[in-house]
From TrEMBL:
Protein name: Xaa-Pro dipeptidyl-peptidase C-terminal domain-containing protein
Pfam families cross-referenced by the UniProt entry: Peptidase_S15, PepX_C
Lineage of source species: Bacteria, Bacillati, Actinomycetota, Actinomycetes, Streptosporangiales
Example GO molecular function: dipeptidyl-peptidase activity
Domain Xaa-Pro dipeptidyl-peptidase C-terminal: 329-564
Length: 573
């Protein structure tokens, strides 16, 4: 070990093997760094791979963890606590995916779909790590978000020496990561280009899949077609992306593909997860609805030993990422070191319940029997378990007019609230919102947010639902309280027609304590700032509607607009 450089990290010295070159089967080499203890012996290895740059991840050794809304929070420092990994006697391997950082090759499109599958590179890397003298042949993986998604792609390739994975905050359904309910979400751009507190991808040789596949003439035609969307045309930044895509190649691909289908499905780790039979631990915190949904879907698809751990609000962990390490090392001590620590004797599912601050455990999701029951939108902005008996002539619709954000800074909302709960009332699962609405344009956004409002005026976000009106079609997976939209085509709305829109409410777990109210808040854009959005990166908002829209929400006997929510208790219990 005398010839291996070391660094001091707190009270320990760490051996650092910099810029190791790992050969891929096509001749490209990837660059990795390996951190481990100074004692000369083989150890289990935890591999962290992304496109964000291994030198950025090394800041975990020198940068104290930051929480949102700190301006020093960098969403891309996600490979884990290097010093802690070494202290627990593992090798921490951190590297760059092809086309990024110090690695060779090119990356074609998001997750390199269209080029060499990233799972193939990860297979080759894991087997190389397992063969090194400093590794004992047992390999796991580490890292949150992008790094978590890479773990699933690697496991789906079934490398023999990958013994288990621990996935926190991964992104799985790639369409739902970039279009919530069909509404474009801007945070993936921040993670790719370095905006709003994110360093972004360490680009060296990345290529737009759209530019790779289509001729310049065909692509120009497709761009002009995309610019006919009034929402896109009204947002200067998107016009710039579409007119000048060269330096925004990955984000350009996302903007150019607003519908689900093969382009996204080939990137969807959930489709690959059915081949995974190694142990998988899935961890996600509440407040990040689309990823909670994805973790649950992935949990149900897995065939091997598995855990699902849904943690507490707030939605964003520290950067550098240091949370969940205690759970992770229990998992890896069992599966990589063979320590019988009882982790597999515990229930497979663990869910933190907001409000009661209790942890519910079970062998399945949802962890308790659930009854989906309605809360109806009623006059005077009330929510009630009883439906409206009067017709529209007496129970006139609620409504709001939203001017484009090009001419106003005000986001209009309309809300409905329950009476204060008399007894603690628990809800765990997925929900739906049925809105009978009339608009005077051919499209709009429906953004619904559910809040737990305390008697003192404080409130916490419980869950959200999004739906672009033209994406209102449901598919055969839909059941009561659990709707699904295919998002494979956009069907314009007939202005002036009353349509039923069914929004999927992302999975959540909350107990409304006595005196608290459930508040449902509807808009077609997001408020520019509030207590929840302050906890997310600055670019974590959705594409606003680029035209003026008047919305009428009918909630009468013929139009039973309602929430359908997953009650585990009766309100009177």
């Amino acid at each position: 070990m005398a010839d291996i450089p070391t660094i001091q990290a707190g009270s320990q010295r760490i051996a650092v093997r910099k810029d190791l070159r790992v050969p891929m089967r096509d001749g490209v080499t990837l660059a990795v760094d390996a951190y481990h203890g100074t004692e000369d012996k083989p150890r289990p290895a935890l591999v962290a791979m992304s496109a964000y740059g291994k030198e950025l991840q090394a800041l975990a050794l020198t940068t104290p963890p930051q929480r949102r809304p700190s301006p020093m929070w960098d969403g891309c420092i996600e490979a884990g606590d290097i010093a802690r990994v070494v202290k627990e006697d593992y090798v921490h391997v951190i590297g760059d995916m092809r086309g990024t950082g110090d690695s060779g090759g090119e990356m074609i499109g998001n997750y390199n779909a269209g080029g060499v599958p990233q799972g193939q590179d990860l297979y080759d890397l894991i087997e190389w790590v397992a063969a090194q003298p400093w590794c004992d042949g047992n390999v796991g993986m580490i890292g949150i978000s992008y790094f978590g998604s890479m773990q699933v792609l690697a496991a789906a390739e079934r490398p023999p020496h990958l013994k288990a994975i621990f996935v926190s905050g991964g992104h799985f359904d790639f369409y739902e990561t970039t279009y919530h309910g069909g509404i474009m979400w801007f945070m993936p751009r921040a993670a790719r280009e370095g905006r709003g507190g994110d360093s972004g991808i360490a680009h060296t040789n990345v290529i737009s899949r759209m530019r790779h596949v289509h001729s310049p003439e065909e692509l120009e035609r497709l761009v002009e077609e995309r610019l006919r969307d009034p929402d896109v045309a009204a947002w200067p930044n998107l016009v710039h992306v579409l007119k000048y895509p060269k330096n925004r190649e990955f984000w350009f691909d996302i903007v150019m593909n607003p519908l689900d289908g093969p382009w996204y499905e080939e990137r969807n780790p959930i489709n690959l997860a059915r081949t995974i039979d190694i142990p998988v631990y899935l961890q996600i915190d509440q407040g990040r609805g689309w990823t909670v949904d994805g973790h649950i879907e992935l949990f149900h698809a897995l065939k091997g030993p598995k855990k699902l751990d849904i943690g507490s609000y707030p939605p964003m962990q520290s950067r550098p990422w240091v949370e969940e390490h205690d759970k992770m090392f229990r998992w890896y001590d069992h599966w990589l070191k063979g320590i019988d620590n009882g982790v597999m004797d515990e229930p497979a599912v663990s869910v933190f319940v907001e409000g009661s601050r209790e942890v519910v455990t079970a062998g399945q999701w949802p962890p308790k029997p659930v009854e989906h029951r309605p809360l109806y939108l009623r006059p005077r902005h009330k929510l009630s378990s009883e439906p409206e008996l009067m017709g529209a002539e007496h129970a006139a619709p609620d409504g709001f007019y939203q001017a484009p954000l090009t001419v106003t800074d005000k986001v209009e909302t309309v809300s409905w609230s329950t009476e204060p709960f008399e007894q603690a009332t628990e809800l765990i699962g997925t929900g739906a919102a049925h809105l009978f609405a009339e608009i005077d344009q051919d499209d709009t956004n429906f953004i619904l947010r559910l809040w737990d409002a305390a008697p003192d005026g404080r409130r916490q976000l419980i869950t959200t639902g999004y739906l672009k009106a033209s994406h209102r079609e449901l598919d055969e997976r839909t059941t009561e309280g659990d709707p699904y939209h295919p998002h494979t085509r956009a069907v314009p709305v007939e202005p002036g027609a009353v349509e039923e829109y069914v929004l999927r409410l992302y999975p959540f777990a909350a107990t409304f304590r006595p005196g608290h109210r459930l508040v449902a808040e509807l808009s077609n854009d997001e408020p520019l700032a509030d207590a929840h959005n302050a906890l997310l990166p600055p670019d974590a908002f959705h594409l606003p509607v680029g035209r003026p829209v008047t919305h009428k929400i009918y909630r009468d006997a013929a139009h039973p607009s309602r929430l359908v929510l997953p009650f585990t208790t009766n309100p009177g219990e």
